[in-house]
Design goal:
Blueprint: H1 8-15, E1 19-23, H2 28-39, E2 43-48, E3 67-71, E4 84-87, H3 94-97, H4 101-122, E5 125-131, H5 158-178, E6 182-187, E7 190-191, H6 202-211, E8 216-219, E9 225-227, E10 229-230, H7 231-241, E11 251-254, E12 259-261, H8 262-273, E13 279-282, H9 297-303, H10 311-327
This protein binds nicotinamide-adenine-dinucleotide (NAD).
């Protein structure tokens, strides 16, 4: 199902466009990034194995003659003529990354290695989608980038947490040994349209349950806190971090520092959807962190970035998306760009 990319180097030369490879471009965040970069005039090659990504996230982008996609597993090496790389390829929700933990670890380690080697070959700047999970169940609040974390190396979440930590180490070593221009975003919980309804993440879970009038499942007593960043804010942070004017070759937290308890989130979703759903409480999963909040001082100072979309506003757009999805699952097909 590849859409052969149209001689990227030829396009770039003719129009002096940057050719950007987005690994994991068919996923939730990746598809928004593809859209943003296409709109800004880049040639975009989306590379994805479609394990959690979906074609319907991309269909509305096919009208851009500067867009192409390739089905490929980054665990295997690849060569393409590119100027920049974004590595977002990795399942992000626990349900999906725990389904095949060895593949998750391979994606994080071999996948990053392959893309870093590609960056060396083409002297390309490369971005890594890291995660707040590298802080584990943190003992420091909020978490600054200098905090080394509290991570279990031997549990169901370890394939993702330790995989992402190893990927950061590879980025560090390619920067110091090969001079690769690396950019690393430690992403905190992000939500918005194009999350999968079945991915088990807290925002999509609550919205789908509320819209279906099902009980809203809160794990633990709901007092654990999370910070939720709307996808548009996050993508703005990605592009700022990758810009020429920035030379940050160290990890940067990107997320919304405004903290909500999981119970508060459930109550907001119920109110917004006017759902008859009631909250039910279940035991906390193993290694579930009690509290997460980014310290975004670096992003503010170095990128001039901070989230601007409040939870209520972002939830409204996300609920509208899921309403369309539940009525008409392929509604992205008719989305107007
Ligand atoms: N969404 C968040 O809140 C969040 C938080 C922290 C970090 N991240 C990171 O951001 C990135 C994107 O997350 P997302 O929420 O869009 O997840 P997602 O699951 O929607 O997207 C991941 C994409 O990567 C693809 N993929 C997975 N393994 C691959 C492989 N081996 N080769 C090629 N493609 C592969 C999937 O098919 C999918 O399209 C991930 O790396 C994730 O770890 C996301």
């Amino acid at each position: 199902m590849n859409m052969p990319f149209r001689s990227a180097s030829l396009y770039s030369k003719m129009f002096e466009r940057r050719t950007v490879l987005i690994a994991g471009g068919a996923g939730f965040l990746g598809s928004h990034l593809c859209e943003r970069l296409l709109r800004s005039g880049c040639q975009v090659i989306c590379l994805d194995d479609f394990s959690t990504g979906r074609m319907e996230n991309l269909r509305h982008l096919l009208r851009f003659d500067t867009f192409s996609f390739i089905r490929h597993d980054i665990v295997n090496s690849i060569d393409l003529p590119i100027d920049e790389i974004y590595n977002l390829a990795c399942p992000a929700s626990p349900v999906h990354y725990q389904a095949d933990p060895v593949q998750t670890m391979k994606t994080c380690v071999f996948g990053s290695l392959n893309l870093l080697e590609l960056a060396v070959r083409h002297q390309a700047r490369i971005f890594q989608a890291s995660t707040s999970e590298i802080y584990g169940d943190p003992h420091v609040h909020p978490q600054p980038e200098g905090y080394w974390g509290n991570v279990n190396s031997f549990g169901p979440r370890s394939c993702y947490d330790e995989g992402k930590r190893s990927a950061e180490t590879l980025f560090h070593d390619f920067h110091t040994r090969h001079g690769v221009d690396i950019r690393i975003a430690r992403i905190f919980n992000t939500y918005g349209p194009r999350m999968r309804p079945d991915d088990g993440r807290v925002v999509s879970n609550f919205i789908v349950q509320a819209l279906k009038g099902q009980p809203i499942t809160v794990y633990g007593d709901g007092s654990q806190t999370r910070s939720f960043c709307y996808v548009d804010d996050l993508i703005e942070g990605f592009t700022r971090l990758m810009s020429d004017s920035v030379t940050l070759n160290v990890p940067v937290n990107l997320g919304n520092p405004v903290e909500f308890s999981v119970r508060e989130l459930a109550e907001q979703v119920i109110a917004l959807t006017r759902s008859p759903s009631k909250i039910v409480y279940k035991p906390l999963p193993i290694d579930d962190p009690r509290q997460r909040r980014p310290d975004i001082t670096t992003a503010k100072q170095e990128l001039g970035w901070e989230p601007s979309i409040a939870l209520a506003e972002g939830l409204e757009a996300t609920v509208a998306y899921f309403e369309r999805q539940l009525v008409r699952p392929n509604s992205e097909l008719v989305e107007v760009v």
